[in-house]
Amino acid sequence: MARVVPEVEWDSEAPYVAAIERLKAERNAVVIAHNYQAPQIFHGVADLVGDSLAMAQLAAETDADVVVVAGVHFMAETAKLLNPEKTVLIPDLEAGCSLAESITGADIRLLRERYPGAPVVTYVNTSAEVKAESDVCCTSSNAVEVVESLGAPRVIFLPDEFLGKWVAANTDVEIVLWRGHCMVHERFTPEEIRRFRDAYGGDIQVLAHPECPPEVLAEADFVGSTSGLVRYVDENRPSRVLLITECSMASNVSVNHPEVEFVRPCNICPHMNRITVPKIFESLRDMKHEVTVPYEIAGRARRAVELMLEVGRGRGG
Q1: In a shared domain, residues 189 and 52
Q2: Is the CB of residue 102 less than 8 Å from the CB of residue 30?
Q3: pTM for the full model?
Q4: Cα separations (Å) of 59 from 112, 226, 257, 270?
Q5: 153 with 174, same domain?
Q6: Residues 87, 160: one domain?
Q7: Measured CA distances, 143 to 150, 157, 304, 309 (Å)
Q8: On the chain, which terminus has fewer CB atoms closer than 10 Å, C or N?
Q9: Measured between alpha carbons, how far is 317 from 228 in angstroms, rounded to an integer?
Q10: In tens digits, what is the pLDDT along the chain, a chain of 317 residues?
Q11: How many CB atoms lie within 10 A of CB 3?
Q12: What CATH number is associated with residue 73?
């Protein structure tokens, strides 16, 4: 913690952390945090950490009765889909996602009318309502595998346009796109990457998430999912790295790699930032805000996720 959280900040957080630990024991609860969460959450109170899908899968592996999701709303919904018997809480109901909010179930029904017979592949970074209208879900690491598993000449791929373009560049299947974007990843530019390369004389490894624009991915040394980026650093240990993704992730990964210099182009997700240590404390204290998925949606949405897991291992969002 000392490497990523200043002592003056930790002094104000420590009483909340202690209270959270007591409440977790009392309620048989776990806190699951996304890689984009602030270090004081990721390293301070989280019991399990991972990307959007891994969070839900890890929740299923615990015997906890209560799961607090330190992430955005669609992540809490996915955790509930895969753990229907557990109480799932999110500390702030306003923690949304620009990408998930870019499409609705009604949009998918219209697309099916426009492209009859084309199966719908939906990124897990979507609402349960959207998952329920889909044939199968995918993650950023298995998107190509899922698309090709359907054996269809044309596939509707939703909702991330840039991830869809990356898939289209890596398969012969015709990809019908939707113009949804992540407000963090869409802001990166190739000029920004080139400035960093020039500043360090080219001595830097650029790792990018496929939710970034294609011209940004073209500048990267490696393109991978959230878990894929972490794995690349673990396995290759570059001397200097530029992570083209949400800013907090570099802080969290750097704790395990003091030998790696992390250069940080700090694009922060305002939705993730709505989750704080005090709000996690309040969530456990008051058992709020419980996340539920309507019965008529849950079964179909769960099936779309389970089909994805049958195709591939679903290694990250």
Answers
A1: no
A2: no
A3: 0.92
A4: 33, 18, 26, 25
A5: yes
A6: no
A7: 11, 9, 13, 12
A8: N
A9: 9
A10: 666 677 777 778 889 999 999 999 999 999 999 999 998 999 999 999 999 888 888 988 999 999 999 999 999 999 999 999 999 999 999 999 999 999 999 999 999 999 999 999 999 999 999 999 999 999 998 999 999 999 999 999 999 999 999 999 999 999 999 999 999 999 999 999 999 999 999 899 999 999 999 999 999 999 999 999 999 999 999 999 999 999 999 989 999 999 999 998 878 999 999 999 999 999 999 999 999 999 999 999 999 999 998 885 544 45
A11: 10
A12: 3.40.50.10800
Task: State whether 161 and 195 are in the same domain.
Answer: no
Which range of residues forms the domain containing residue 216? 185-263
Same-domain check for residues 91 and 121? no
Residues 84, 105 share a domain: no
Does residue 194 lie within any of the structural domains? yes
Residue 2, in any domain of the structure:
no
Tell me how long the chain is.
317
Closest among 220, 297, 250, 255 to 35, alpha carbons compared: 250
Domains in the chain, number? 3
Kindly report the backbone phi and psi dihedral angles of residue 87, in degrees, each rounded to the nearest multiple of 5, phi listed first: -85, 120
